[in-house]
Design brief:
2 domains; single chain; 57% helix; mainly alpha; 107 residues
């Protein structure tokens, strides 16, 4: 392992720019990559309904987004319409549908 050439440690920028692999920089990089991601399985039905109407002011958790995709699919919406309303890619809708079918939450 090479010695670290970064002047400052513990930042995601040092990890990317200077290749700093000290424990502080690695931890900062992981924290930077996971910033804003929520892993909660709680579903806020109000947030889901707002997203279905196209209100994208509040980001959805993964579970809420999957619930919105399931509800809109059950209502007969196309994957393009779902993608437009939720502000995600059409391929992401297809992935959510496949995952929901696999666990039996969608037919």
């Amino acid at each position: 392992m090479t010695s670290c050439i970064a002047e400052r440690h513990g930042t995601a920028w040092m990890y990317r720019r200077w290749g700093c692999r000290c424990p502080d920089a690695v931890a900062a990089r992981r924290a930077h990559r996971n910033a804003g991601r929520t892993v909660s399985t709680d579903i806020d039905p109000v947030a889901v309904q707002r997203a279905i109407r196209g209100d994208l002011n509040q980001p959805l958790t993964l579970a809420e987004r999957a619930a919105a995709v399931a509800q809109m699919t059950a209502a007969g919406c196309t994957s393009q319409l779902i993608a437009d309303r939720l502000g995600i890619d059409q391929r992401t809708v297809v992935r959510h549908r496949a995952r929901l079918r696999k666990i039996g939450a969608l037919r």
